[in-house]
Fold:
Amino acid sequence: MLAAAPSRPRLSLDQQVMSWGLWLALAFLLAFLALPLGTLLLRAFETPEGGFAGLANFRTYATTPALLVAAWNSVWTAALSAVIVVPLAFGYAYALTRACIPARPLFRAVMMLPLLAPSLLPALALIYLFGNQGMLRGLLMGGSIYGPAGIVAAQVFYCFPAAALILAVALSTADARLYEAAAALRASRARIFLTVTLPGARYGLVSAFVVVFTLVVTDFGIPKVIGGQFPVLATDVYKQVVGLQDFNMGAVVGIVLLVPAVAAFLLDRWASRQRSATMSGRAVPLRPAPRAARDRPLLALCLVVAAVLVGIVGVAAWGSLIRFWPYNLSLTLDNYGFSRFDAAGWQAVWLSVRMAGLAAVLGTAIIFVVAYVLERGPQKGQLPGLGRFAATVPLAVPGLVLGLAYVLFFNHPANPLGVLYGTLAILVLNSIVHFYTVGHLTAVTAIRQLDPEFESVGASMRVPVWVTFGRVTVPMCLPAILEIAIYLFVTAMTTVSAVIFLYGPDTKPASVAMLHMDEAGQASAAAAMGVVILGITTAAKLAQLVLGALLGRATQAWRR
Structure:
């Protein structure tokens, strides 16, 4: 008689649920990330008739001088912006973490202003200041703000908080024993800074540079408003798709735009793998002592940077109240009657609020559940690793590229999901996927702080895993969940590049309406729309702080 084949161990219900959750997570990322990007890649190798073009489209790109100039312009303006932003952000973050200056919470709050505003807002403010009819145009000594100077200046404002946040985290972890040892060896303050402080923050510096470089290369709003005739990759994608209706060449330019973003992402990943722990279990937290020679210059730096940040927002807000720039400077609220300047009117604002709200609610639920499944679900096989990789890919995909990929994928005749195109649903899905990675990393960090024994104890007591998830994991991770929700809401409200290809006649977001107003020469109305968006996102952030404090008292006593 033949021996019976050994039977595979039967999975418990909890294991089956987690396995199904893993498959559903991969299906979501496949349908709304991998397949659209794959469609974009295939389209770059097609002829206008749908045949196989091989590398012909890429050869056309390589032999078109204007397109190559746009690529070079994107790279050097991004590098220059990063070179300016990173030292400024380092000094600001150093003042907040390593110096004794007053009003640090206020300086932190001011630092966040650019994150809450659309990228078009600083470009409009700079036009009011230095444009052809600007108040301070004489300071340019005959130069023009339209072009690389305006792009770099606006990007410095827009990217500053991202770099400052990264560097503040990098500088907040320091072992006081290293500084005590250096002082005991009678090292000068300059040498301590060069041999202890900078090496401890070097990976934060790399990450900040990479983030700024990527943000500038992939941003569409600023070069569209203040770039003038200066071509960059982001505006070239828009011109190929919207202006020339050449989707094949648009796909090629999109892939070229993807290259520097992916290269920067890989550099950051390499730097992260090289990182070693800066705080051991025996480390002594560094508490800086007051020192006037250090604190006063850093306070002056913070005052200047904060004044510039507030000043640019203030100029944009003032411009939104001007009756007719620059000929009639009397103040009016007529610019907030958006129906006079755009067919969507205030409906664009309410649609953006609905879109951002749905992205926050649905996206937070999807992101947190997927992160939980990847961290607490089955770890054997290739599926968990594939899921983690897919969750980090959106961070390297520019919004314009993802938006173009959605156009090509959802408009395909054979795609049953094509009914989503032009609806609010596709805007919500695009926002969730585009900003997925930051939320995922936040959720993973929160989940990893919890002992896996919670699930083991629940299983031993025959409590289903979904009950443990709802009663233990979610309440303990509420601060992170709220942070993810607000991040998705704010980014969905302010983004332009991610939705510029996807809106329909009845689904125009406020950020796109703002762009169209500026294109029509209605700068004051565009500034007014930007101020409204800033007001909504600021209110959402303040609500998060209040709600977070209340939830913290109710659910986070275990941390204290």
In short: The chain has two domains: 19-61+333-560, 64-277+303-319.
